[in-house]
Amino acid sequence: MAEPNAVEDGDMELYDLRVSVDRIDGRSVCGMAVGDSFELTNSAHLRLPEGKHFCVYALASVLPFLAAKQRDLAAGDWLAQDSLFACPDPEEQLVMRVERTCRRRMNSADLT
Question: What are the sequence ranges of the domains in the chain?
Answer without folding.
Answer: 13-103
